[in-house]
Amino acid sequence: MRGLACAVAVATALSAPAALAQAGAPAPEAFWKTVQATCDATAAKPATELAARIARAAIDEFVLFGGHQIDADGEILRFGATAADSEDEHSGAREASLDRSGWRRVMTYWRALYGDNIGPMLEVRAHRDATTPGEELLRATPAELQHALEAVPDAELREILRQAMVRTAVVDTPWSAAFISYVVRQAGVAASAFQFSNAHRAYIYDAFETSAAEAAAKTSDRLYRACPLSATKPRVGDIICNHREPALADAGEEAVRERIRAELGGSAEAHSVRRAHCEVVAFIDAPASKMYTIGGNVLQGVAARKLNLRQPDLKFSAVQTERCRGPGYWTLPGQGAPQAPDLAEKCSLKGYKWFVLLQMR
Q: Which of 197, 208, 238, 287 is most exposed, with minimal Cβ within 10 Å?
């Protein structure tokens, strides 16, 4: 019943107009003008040492994971390791070393969030009858399965099953927010400054709360504020976020930001922008008008992504999918009708609904 009530609350929030802001909140134009002035003043300053440490932690983890490389046209330059890998195909070794094994790296991110008490946060999924489409989805936590494994008498077999179970849980459970939390924590950020979470929306809404506090001339000890993405020059250590809410698929970034602002002060269950993904700004290549971001759980791995910046102001460009192919490019037979209508939208790994820059204050 609690899950049903939560789903109803989210559905109601998504269908409500974003203008339902809390009483007494400033009008959108005035609010975002104030926020933008603050964002511009900060963006004009050099990145801090802490920002450089966050960027360095993201790059180091990308290298250690052996991640994917995605170019400025949304095409994969290198498909790297994934969370499910058990062999290091890229180095030629038969098996990856333990510190390079994808699922063990992901477990490191989870442990940075929850210590050894990660069992309740992960889940293993199955179907009651996998041969029948649409059958009921079954879920169990690793802790529940671990209890069942204790009945296996052979110690080596028990350990093999335990690792297989954990590896499956890592693959089945989204971990991109855990990756961001891990990187920020590795840089030495305290919990009082950043809301470490397994859900991106936790620190997205937190950054919006900080912007609202600043606009009201109140103090905040949080590390990030929410800035308009296309109007703010990014720096290393900043974080950019996109969303995957179907009800907001046709909404511009301004409308999505205003919806979040309208929901500030309410309960977490009422936060309607729930499906999100964030990446750390790791490097700005000013001469090339590009920036590199690094995120987790992209194609089941850690990915470095090149994104276009505008000239001459080096702000985020709305044009990120220049080389999507035309309708005659994919000619493989046996797929029914050609997939031309979707090709222009789905061929690029850049076609995301990026909408906010979390700027380091």
A: 287
Structure tokens at 307: 């994104």
What pLDDT is attached to residue 6? Answer: 45
Q: Are 135 and 127 in contact (CB under 8 A)?
A: yes
Spell out the residues 6+ positions from residue 329 whose beta carbon is closer than 8 angstroms to its own: 343
CA atoms within 13 A on the CB side of 155: 0
Q: Which pLDDT does position 87 carry in this prediction?
A: 57
Rounded Cα distance between 250 and 273, Å, is 14
Q: Which residue has the tokens 């008008």?
A: 289
d(CA 75, CA 105): 25
Show me where the domains of the chain are located. 20-83+192-361, 85-174
Category of 309 on φ-ψ map: left (φ > 0), alpha (ψ -120 to 50) or beta: beta
What predicted TM-score, i.e. pTM, was given to this entire model?
0.83
Residue indicated by tokens 């797929």: 335
With CA atoms as reference, report the closest residue to 200 among 320, 356, 82, 83.
356
Residue 120: CB partners within 8 Å, gap ≥ 6?
141, 143
Closest CA to 256 of 177, 358, 354: 354
Rg, C-alpha atoms of the chain: 22
Confidence of residue 165 (pLDDT cuts 50, 70, 90): confident
Q: What is the β-pairing status of strands 301-308 and 68-70?
A: parallel
Per-residue CA distances from 89 to 63, 66, 69, 233 (Å): 15, 10, 16, 38
Q: How far apart are CA 344 and CA 323, in angstroms?
A: 9
Question: What is the chain's mean pLDDT, rounded?
Answer: 83
